[in-house]
């Protein structure tokens, strides 16, 4: 037996108590709920947007007699089909941490090109192909400048906005009516639904675009790379991901979606005009952020962008039903909501990081 074997066991000193971090009252309850919930997740942000949409629509149904009709809800899709498609393209860009300020101008360019080419006697399928190719080409050029020349997306897409708008005025200043049989047929006919309700073909196409985008983002390597770039571009490059090709690709997608949105808008109003789509890119950005996509990239869902568009549409519908409010109240309300959601993203993101 050694000396060490005869020593009495050392007493374990209890660890000092941790300082209490709980907060009293309702603040403590909210704090504990936030810490126990994955508030920084995309799903949480989408749920918040969905709850807001339900609350707004429910308030409208209580306040106005005919607001709760099913067709009123479907009209949110019918009247905002072009914005839904635009928001899908913007979601891809913002997920990488970029921005696209040219979207509204590309929408106008799509309407002007479609109207002028149809007026010149071009067949409608060829016009559609040319418009979509033009939007994708503009997106490709902006993506090359952003990645290849390491320029800021804000500056490059701002230049793209001026370029697209300038081309619109170079083609035609006044509004051009669209009288093509295919465009008018798509504009007039609808998809009948049970209960005497309906959806336009543009709304159906917009939902298809959302479904395809969701599949691409969550079931393909390209989509996973988009999220990885938004999380950390340098880390994505170190992992061997195709950073350059993906960054250019998201701007191609945004340009394509903007051109498609222009075609849907031209079908919706059956005209092409150089002043169409002014500020539409800001509406798309607002819808994406309200839908839960973080402006710095890396987190968001395309379904959230769809809900964000529906929230904007519901606000506009509420103001239209009231009849006594100026339409500018839509912009004021959207501005307040946008600020609230940015603050919410900041708080929940910080909370999620603390909990982890």
From TrEMBL:
Record GO cellular component, one term: plasma membrane
Chief location of this protein within or outside the cell: membrane
Name listed for the protein in its UniProt record: Simple sugar transport system permease protein
Organismal lineage: Bacteria, Bacillati, Actinomycetota, Actinomycetes, Geodermatophilales
Region called Disordered, residue ranges: 1-25
Transmembrane segments: 42-60, 72-94, 101-120, 126-147, 154-178, 198-217, 248-269, 301-319, 325-344
Membrane topology, from the record: Multi-pass membrane protein
Molecular function GO terms recorded: transmembrane transporter activity
Entry keyword set: Cell membrane, Membrane, Sugar transport, Transmembrane, Transmembrane helix, Transport
InterPro entries, per the entry: ABC_transp_permease
């Amino acid at each position: 037996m050694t000396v060490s074997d005869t020593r009495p066991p050392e007493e374990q000193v209890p660890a000092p108590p941790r300082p209490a971090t709980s907060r009293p009252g309702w603040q403590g309850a909210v704090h504990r709920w936030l810490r126990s919930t994955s508030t920084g997740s995309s799903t949480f942000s989408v749920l918040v947007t969905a709850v807001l949409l339900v609350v707004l629509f429910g308030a409208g149904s209580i306040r106005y007699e005919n607001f709760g009709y099913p067709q009123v809800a479907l009209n949110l899709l019918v009247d905002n089909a072009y914005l839904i498609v635009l928001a899908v393209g913007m979601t891809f860009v913002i997920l990488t941490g970029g921005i696209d300020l040219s979207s509204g101008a590309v929408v106008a360019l799509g309407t002007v090109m479609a109207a002028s080419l149809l007026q010149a006697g071009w067949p409608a399928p060829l016009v559609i192909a040319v418009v979509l190719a033009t939007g994708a080409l503009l997106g490709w050029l902006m993506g090359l400048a952003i990645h290849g020349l390491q320029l800021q997306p804000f500056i490059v897409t701002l230049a793209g906005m001026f370029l697209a708008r300038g081309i619109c005025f170079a083609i035609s200043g006044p509004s051009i009516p669209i009288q093509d049989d295919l465009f008018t047929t798509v504009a007039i006919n609808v998809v009948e639904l049970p209960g005497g309700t309906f959806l336009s073909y543009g709304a159906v196409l917009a939902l298809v675009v959302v479904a395809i985008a969701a599949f691409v983002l969550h079931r393909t390597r390209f989509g996973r790379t988009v999220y990885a770039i938004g999380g950390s571009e340098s880390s994505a490059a170190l992992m061997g991901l195709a950073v350059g090709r993906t960054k250019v690709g998201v701007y191609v997608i945004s340009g394509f979606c903007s051109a498609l949105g222009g075609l849907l808008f031209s079908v919706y109003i059956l005209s092409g005009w150089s002043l169409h789509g002014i500020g539409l890119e800001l509406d798309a950005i607002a819808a994406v952020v309200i839908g839960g996509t973080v402006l710095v990239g890396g987190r968001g869902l395309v379904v959230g962008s769809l809900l964000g568009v529906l929230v904007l549409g519901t606000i506009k519908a509420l103001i239209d039903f009231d009849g006594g409010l100026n339409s500018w109240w839509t912009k004021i309300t959207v501005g307040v909501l946008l600020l609230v959601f940015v603050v919410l993203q900041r708080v929940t993101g910080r909370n999620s990081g603390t909990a982890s």
